Request: fold
Amino acid sequence: MKLDSKAMRHLTSEDWRVLTAVEMGSKNHEVVPTPLIEKIARLRGGSSGVHKSIATLAKVGLVARVKEARYDGYRLTYGGLDYLALHTHASRRDVYSVGTRIGVGKESDIVVVADHDGTQKVLKIHRLGRISFRTVKANRDYLKNRASGSWMYLSRLAAMKEFAFMKALREEGFPVPEPLAQSRHTIVMTLIDALPLRQISSVPDPASLYADLIGLILRLAKHGLIHGDFNEFNILIKEEPVSDAAGDEVKDEVSRVNLTPIVIDFPQMVSMDHPNAEMYFDRDVNCVKRFFERRFHFVSTQPGPFFDDAKKLVGKNGSKRLDAALEASGFTKKMAKDLDAALREQVAKDVPDEKDVDSSEDEDVDDDDETYISQASDAEQSENGPAQPSEDEPIAVIQPGSEQSPGHASRSSDPAAREMERLSLGNT
Ligand SMILES: Nc1ncnc2c1ncn2[C@@H]1O[C@H](COP(=O)(O)OP(=O)(O)OP(=O)(O)O)[C@@H](O)[C@H]1O
Ligand SMILES: [Mg+2]
Reply:
């Protein structure tokens, strides 16, 4: 789903109040009855055109009308939630304008935004309903009466979890983007000007990069954590020229560029104490091994690292355990359980074919998630290209002393080169 912020500037303060009322009503109602929207909106302000606002919001797709047998009402759409989050980021001055989308993941949209100074940042919008929709359908009865399986709730949990871990990792000096703000299902973080490892066809010294990556897995373990999706898409490679002590560029062929891996994507992080920790740990290690063998024809002479050895590192030399960071941030055990279940199902299932989506179950709900899936799976992907390049299409070769950093090959860091849509807060 594209983030189109254009309609934002036409919303009045009354429209925003009504949109907020729909969101508040959603806490207890999957479909918010129209009288309840009126009541909440009026409590929060004057008692004028609530209906007019509802019509405006429905027209631009921020709320969707649902005709239930028992009552008429509206539900917040992904677009509506996006607008509320953007509105919050704008009013806190974390985001001033919205630019292009640079990534469509299975579970998120990645959009370049800028603040008031023109500094570019990344807005990650979690979209958990995108894949788990089929599962959501299978659990419809369960979901009908509970908010805990809804896309809104699960996407917010993913954002909360990712933000908390990014913050904790950053504080321990891990190479991760700096988390700047979180609202609802979104995170604002620093933009890393680098390409995912997946898009890099060769590096001067694979052994050293391999050692760095395995080192990161072990360093995470020391702090009680397993990334859980440590693959070539979630490792960005930053290229920096190396200077010697005198500040001159190093001429030696191999050491002229420094490759620094930056790790991203944390909603699936697990504790080293997780019942399946060994499986997750081995999977992360094997991901790196497999990729290095295939792409760089590099096989380490050292076996492992193995989980049992990594386990002994937990908390070593006074390393702070970060697996507790999540609970410290207010993330309850129940939230962790709900999110784990959703992410597990997501991994297990692929994007459903259209024929897999059984619309007959849906006649009582005008559910935009369905269109959302077909958009994301075909129209959007083909329009924007696949989320990731195929294995055969690495686009960057990192050579010592190459003139362009890999980041420049794919995206411009010049703010003027990117079209930005300034956000409007309306008259609130
Ligand atoms: N802070 C950032 N700076 C630069 N690029 C980023 C940043 N965060 C994400 N990206 C880009 O967006 C892509 C997707 O981001 P991320 O892995 O966080 O989302 P995701 O939903 O997990 O995607 P996927 O399902 O494909 O793994 C990354 O591979 C990377 O290219
Ligand atoms: Mg990812």
Observations:
- Residues 118 and 415 are 7 Å apart (CA to CA).
- The longest strand covers residues 97-104.
- The chain has a mean pLDDT of 80.
